[in-house]
Design a protein that fits this description.
Largest sheet of chain A: 6 strands, mixed
Order of helices and strands of chain A: EEEEEEEEEEE
Structural class of chain B: mainly beta
Structural class of chain A: mainly beta
Distance between the termini of chain B: 37 Å
Strand content of chain B: over 45%
Radius of gyration of chain A: 14 Å
Strand content of chain A: over 45%
Largest sheet of chain B: 7 strands, mixed
Number of strands of chain B: 11
Oligomer: heterodimer
Number of helices of chain A: 0
Radius of gyration of chain B: 13 Å
Number of strands of chain A: 11
Helix content of chain B: under 10%
Order of helices and strands of chain B: EEEEEEEEEEE
Shape of chain A: globular
Distance between the termini of chain A: 41 Å
Number of helices of chain B: 0
Amino acid sequence: AQSVTQLGSHVSVSEGALVLLRCNYSSSVPPYLFWYVQYPNQGLQLLLKYTSAATLVKGINGFEAEFKKSETSFHLTKPSAHMSDAAEYFCAVSDGRGGADGLTFGKGTHLIIQP
Amino acid sequence: KAGVTQTPRYLIKTRGQQVTLSCSPISGHRSVSWYQQTPGQGLQFLFEYFSETQRNKGNFPGRFSGRQFSNSRSEMNVSTLELGDSALYLCASSIAEGGEQYFGPGTRLTVT
């Protein structure tokens, strides 16, 4: 079984400040890890993914995430927040075996950007 | 290349009715997955189809069903609607099973 825990249902940062969204996972097999973003009334858009290659993964819109096996973490960061980053962010894990149960998502973190 | 499309975008139904939602995957994608998103339960996997066959199913009652056609388009059906079925239903497609998923905008179902 696999699971994802996102620490903090709401995170508020000032525009220009560092964004850090936390994600911890559990998986019985080497995981595939993903971060998705969801804007209001829209579907999910893939930000980045880890598939056992480089541990530091760069994604779209200036986001990146680092896979740390020892900490079972895959935290999402962005050096400087922009107002347009305000959205819901989801971390997800897949065992990559072929979608045995699809993606397992965390509960999501609502990112608020203060002007 | 056009993205995943879902119809309708918004739907209001009465408790006890049934509903059918449609999903057209990205051209060339053969796998379609469905998810239910609610404020309380978050995103939950419903089922995954590949080559017209249901490959995996989440922990939902039998009122939830789906199918996939030869052109990879998929439909999901919910019978005997309950108030708790009110949710955003998301469809995602991928080239193959377990591949990177691309999500549609969702269908917002409200059950009154």
